[in-house]
Amino acid sequence: MQRIIELTLQMPDGRKEVPIHPIVLQDDEHLILVDCGFIGSLRLLEIELGKHGISIEQLTALVLTHHDHDHMGAAAALKRANPRIQIYSSLEESVYISAREKPLRLVQAEELQAQLPPQQQAFGRMFCDMLRRVEPVTVDAHLTDSQETGWCGGCQVLLSAGHTPGHLSLYCKELDAVIVGDAFALEHDTPVLANPQFTLDVEMAKRSMEKLLSLKARTYYCYHGGIYRP
Question: I need a surface site. Which of 25, 60, 78, 222 has the fewest CB within 10 A?
Answer without folding.
Answer: 60
